[in-house]
Amino acid sequence: QVQLVESGGGLVQTGGSLRLSCAASGRTFSGYSIGWFRQAPGKEREFVATISWHDGTTYYADSVKGRFTLSRDIAKNTVVLQMNSLKPEDTAAYFCNTIRTWPSTPMGSWGKGTLVTVSS
């Protein structure tokens, strides 16, 4: 099983940008799709975006479409979520996970996540 580690969260003002990374240890992402999910305080975890490691195909939740961009760095075995035009409602802990069923059914266990706070 792939072990995933999220990083890159922080505090940013409305309209700002952050870049989150999801790194794999133990094996490569080859053969997987990798998704980002988020969980705001008091709310259930929700799907954000998914990328196919094989060909880079992406899929986004409507709430982030046009603002977030998901990409993969094959050399670094890392998936990057570029978040632009951030809004206070984007505030959440962000998690990555391998995908069982395209585009948004997670497969593995959850890591610690990385916290994103968008101030108004």
Element layout with pairings:
Elements: E1 3-7, E2 10-13, E3 18-25, E4 33-39, E5 46-52, E6 58-60, E7 68-73, E8 78-83, E9 92-101, E10 105-106, E11 114-119
Parallel strand pairs: 2-11
Antiparallel strand pairs: 1-3, 3-8, 4-5, 4-9, 5-6, 7-8, 9-10, 9-11
Key phrases:
120 residues; 0% helix; globular; mainly beta; 53% strand
Q: Percent of residues in beta strands? A: over 45%
- Average pLDDT for all residues: 95
Number of helices: 0
Strand runs, count = 11
List the uncertain runs. Answer: none
Query: What does the largest sheet look like?
Result: 7 strands, mixed
* Helix-strand sequence: EEEEEEEEEEE
Q: Tell me, briefly, the overall form.
A: globular
C-alpha termini separation: 39 Å
Rg over CA atoms? 13 Å
Describe this structure in words.
The chain has strands spanning 3-7, 10-13, 18-25, 33-39, 46-52, 58-60, 68-73, 78-83, 92-101, 105-106, 114-119. It is mostly beta strands. The radius of gyration is 13 Å and the shape is globular. β4 and β5 form a beta hairpin. The mean pLDDT is 95.
